[in-house]
Amino acid sequence: MTAKLYALESSFNQRSKVRVGEAEFGRDFVLIAGPCSVESEAQTLLAARKVKEAGAHLLRGGAFKPRTSPYSFQGLGIKGLKILAKAREAFGLPIVTEVVDPRDAGWISEYADVLQVGARNMQNFSLLREAGKIGKPVLLKRGMNSTLDEWLNCAEYILAEGNPNVILCERGIRTFETYTRNTLDLSIVPAVRELSHLPVIVDPSHGTGRASLVEPMSLAAAAAGADGLMIEVHPDPAAALSDKDQTLSPEAFARLAGRVLRLRDHIRNDEGGGRGNH
Amino acid sequence: MTAKLYALESSFNQRSKVRVGEAEFGRDFVLIAGPCSVESEAQTLLAARKVKEAGAHLLRGGAFKPRTSPYSFQGLGIKGLKILAKAREAFGLPIVTEVVDPRDAGWISEYADVLQVGARNMQNFSLLREAGKIGKPVLLKRGMNSTLDEWLNCAEYILAEGNPNVILCERGIRTFETYTRNTLDLSIVPAVRELSHLPVIVDPSHGTGRASLVEPMSLAAAAAGADGLMIEVHPDPAAALSDKDQTLSPEAFARLAGRVLRLRDHIRNDEGGGRGNH
Amino acid sequence: MTAKLYALESSFNQRSKVRVGEAEFGRDFVLIAGPCSVESEAQTLLAARKVKEAGAHLLRGGAFKPRTSPYSFQGLGIKGLKILAKAREAFGLPIVTEVVDPRDAGWISEYADVLQVGARNMQNFSLLREAGKIGKPVLLKRGMNSTLDEWLNCAEYILAEGNPNVILCERGIRTFETYTRNTLDLSIVPAVRELSHLPVIVDPSHGTGRASLVEPMSLAAAAAGADGLMIEVHPDPAAALSDKDQTLSPEAFARLAGRVLRLRDHIRNDEGGGRGNH
Amino acid sequence: MTAKLYALESSFNQRSKVRVGEAEFGRDFVLIAGPCSVESEAQTLLAARKVKEAGAHLLRGGAFKPRTSPYSFQGLGIKGLKILAKAREAFGLPIVTEVVDPRDAGWISEYADVLQVGARNMQNFSLLREAGKIGKPVLLKRGMNSTLDEWLNCAEYILAEGNPNVILCERGIRTFETYTRNTLDLSIVPAVRELSHLPVIVDPSHGTGRASLVEPMSLAAAAAGADGLMIEVHPDPAAALSDKDQTLSPEAFARLAGRVLRLRDHIRNDEGGGRGNH
């Protein structure tokens, strides 16, 4: 690792906090939920209302979608962002949305409360620098073939621009296993906490690619020490335009949210309170 | 998958139980602990006493060690098995030990309560068939590059010989990540439960290769639905002849055992009792 | 794969040709050589002269370097491009250089004869679209964890903008093996030729990470049917600012170039001429 | 690596030779060909005649097949060995066949001229030791997730028993790529030659899993410095009981054999004769 790593600067007992709305990553266990893509106003507002009722702190939704093929649905763009802004207004949920082009980081950040840098762009250094300059919280997903060292160095690109508000997000790595879409690497959670002061959350939707595995892996992530979760939820998963196999219904998310938050409470009480870590 | 898979035969509500001593895999949350290798009588008896006090149900210890190099310590062999037998007698702990050669399966099973088939031998089909014929419980570790389908088919080799007492054990897969020795694939736990009736436990010691990650990944495994854990514990980890970086002290294991069992109690209570699964 | 893939449009007997200077990818066996980074005018001009003498058709050199750490040498930027332009003028070698930001594609293309999109940016779709709009030849490296299907779809992003001049470049994938820096996947060469009309070259420097393996893997690439090679050459490899372990001296490159071109001649003669494929 | 490695003992200029019949691995470029499985006497004798006519030096054929599922065809066993013996007698081709159980190594070696240890058994140390004791040449396939270091250590298990006749065989490693069955790692060929004196051959049939890729990868293997090839050939590939997608017809093999041997001749002449290596 390089000599001067802001990501590693603080001590373990001074973990970074990143405030977004009323939630604080690094202190609260933060639930981010919502559809993979913003498909329509009705779908998004319904999803927002449902995840809010189920206990989500932030709303996720993609307006610019990086897709393998240039002929796949690429998202609604600016129209999608305006729908997200409406959802925020209606339900008081801060917005997490992805930015894929450094030229867009500035104006997207007027709609977004958290800028997401996706797995494919983890090492898009121009994008990282722009996200750093803007200063809004950045959710930095781990690349699907990235080592911990590479990931922390990408966080460093943002931090080095003077933006301390970085939230890491594990979303599964690419391996030979085909039963799951990716292999969710939960051991990275305590590993991040060993090396860095940054909060780290887990995305079990992309991490497993199977709705049936999202709840058990959410519980496991919470037990491993994650600072939150990012979950794909759609009012009607079977009708989702993207990622439908891994998307939960609002009811399934509500059940998950309850179980995970009770698990975290148990763990905090079991630790004797206030150690903030196991 | 093949047409006739005993591993898949039962329904989800009739999960297999494998009894070993007073513990029952598939019903209890079973803790297996002990040194990587049997090094001496003193070391083994001390380890056995300590892990027993800390709540372990079974004692693990290797007498025949498959090692990368032919010039590395290969285990004490029969002498090691006799030491394990003494430890069983002294502390009432059933013994889990590895068998690496089909010619040895018969006589080793006179010392062992559970025959372990290691990751390197997962597809040693002759060994699987011998282990199947003997009828004693078999702990089948997942190969470090094995898919779920391949692993269940290896269980099938044992089951097809008429031995229903198979316990699966996830121990990490080989990926590009180097911070951890392997990548512990906890999503395989709910995946196994989706496809099979067999109990599945987790070995976070090999799965991470780092003592500091063993406790958080043990909690995560329990939350993911594992039926137990297998943990390397040595009276003096720094002096261990093998795997010392991933070995816990008895004190660290005692702390882990307490936390994991309380976590499981919380989960069972939270489920409303008796569903036996999430 | 998607329905409409320009990358797959032509038949096998009508492979695409991409002309750059006097070389034509898809017809000639094209040698691209030069330093990893442009470090100084003297170093670059010397490297250019030497690789020209040894038979290279194009000069490579990085002015914008995507680096893991923000504190590593990031390249000379515009100054580096001007040095490359001088080398082109002095020795008549067209220039291949990397672009990492969609905002830079336009003006960098005034210096570059071929725009390189690096492995980390393979799925930087904004960058691919810009490269497509500009119309200059694009050298598209395979991402280090990218499947063939994903790679061809990235080519499609460029082709869909109306730019047919795409050259694919295999540069090794990330696996568990540590002896080599990456695992050079030469089977992708005939696989590309099976599915696509695009020319495909090989970079054994990044593909192996070891200077001693560059020549044998160059011969192997030529035998597998590659349309050319991209090789890191530095006047004084031990003094290179980046990638020195995998960089050849001009003398080693000259030897390699001779052997590879004679091997290609043998293969073409052995095929009886004109079948355009083996 | 360990202190005392017989595999590394000799210098580069004194590469080991392993004689089998009239062929000598490490001096000649040796072609091993034949069906995946011995299915019947007619099929095997026909295959033997055809590969002999096409220039093969040794006949391969599996009598004991390690299969993922216990319910798949497991080979003809002893009956298959007797068929192989007939084929040897009829056409003068030495036999390469797999052994999967240490208890069988002794009597199988009465039929086999070369004992094959397959990829799944690379770290079956009991089997390696038995193969070492018997003294016949051993073809040691690389495990599908094995590093070079682990592979050479497995060779060492055989050498340490006093058997110097080890031939290494690269057969593809497991990666994320799905277009090919495995990823053939040809860079391991010059890497083996850098570290060890042992001959190394390549199996592009398993290495790619696609008949269309076998010829180009055979040429590439020869160019990379391999000491030979192992190719699956069946009189009627579409009717093969196993591995039919990767199996060549006798005609395709004859064409391949001619091209590869002419390529090797070119390379040897180009080297100026007698350097025996590039």
What's the layout of helices and strands?
Four copies of one chain form a homotetramer.
Chain A: E1 18-20, E2 23-25, E3 30-34, H1 41-54, E4 58-60, H2 78-91, E5 95-98, H3 105-108, E6 114-117, H4 125-134, E7 138-141, H5 148-159, E8 166-170, H6 188-195, E9 200-202, H7 204-208, H8 211-224, E10 228-232, H9 250-270
3D architecture notes:
4 copies of one chain form a homotetramer. By secondary structure, chain A is of the alpha/beta class. Chain A has one domain: TIM Barrel. In chain A, 37% of the residues lie in helices and 14% in strands. The first copy, chain A, has 9 helices and 10 strands. In chain A, β4, α2 and β5 form a beta-alpha-beta unit. In chain A, α1 packs parallel to α2, α1 runs parallel beside α9 and α8 runs parallel beside α9. The longest helix of chain A is centred in the last third of the chain and has 21 residues. Chain A is globular, with a radius of gyration of 17 Å. The two termini of chain A are 26 Å apart. Chains in contact: A-B, A-C, A-D, B-C, B-D, C-D.
